[in-house]
Write a structure and sequence with these properties.
The structure is a single chain. This protein is of the alpha+beta class. The protein is built from two helices and four strands. A four-stranded antiparallel beta sheet has the order 2-3-1-4, covered by helices on one side. The radius of gyration is 12 Å and the shape is globular.
């Protein structure tokens, strides 16, 4: 099947959810091109960007699982390639 490149933006407001988030990212690791995390200490949040190359269903599945974590939100932006 055809894969897409997407960027997933993640905001973590509850540090207790980081372990579960990292487990999800490890689970989908074969599709992840790269990731970058930036702690924003003044607001007590973490901002994470994940670049992924996978089938659209796989990307949407990961975003859905991330969104079900406590105080974690995510949004995917798909490329046209």
């Amino acid at each position: 099947m055809e894969t897409k490149v997407a960027v997933i933006g993640i905001i973590v407001e509850n540090l207790e959810s980081v372990e579960a988030l990292n487990e999800l990212l490890r689970e989908y690791g074969e599709h992840i091109i790269g990731r970058m995390g930036i702690p924003y200490k003044e607001k007590h949040i973490n901002c994470i960007t994940v670049v992924i190359d996978a089938e659209a269903d796989t990307i949407n599945s990961l975003c859905g699982k991330i969104g079900r974590l406590d105080d974690v939100s995510s949004k995917a932006a798909f490329s046209n390639v």
